Known about the structure:
Layout: E1 2-5, H1 14-22, E2 26-33, E3 37-44, E4 48-56, H2 61-74, E5 83-87, E6 102-110
Amino acid sequence: MFQTFKNLKTSDRAGEILKAISTVDTTCNSRVYTAASGVVAMTAHGLGSVTCVTIADNMAEPERKMLMELEARIGCCLGDAEIILREECDWPHPQMKGSTCFIQFEIFEEYV
């Protein structure tokens, strides 16, 4: 299950950014997985940093803390966000045992 939110700060350049990232070298800086989440931090060389966040429905305290930090970063309470896109995909994720669905999004921070 892939879900996308309505009330997040979304760049009108999203398509352009995704295309640009796909054409440059990327380096994975870190991968952090818990029972219900995953955060992958990458560098898109020459462009900026990308944080890919996956949160599954079997969250516990570690995931709630991580979500609070992400909400502060993006300026939106994820619990209040409205889902506008929902797609089915293969599940379960091999590293997220015990969950039935997940939400995934990416944060791009451009070099200044």
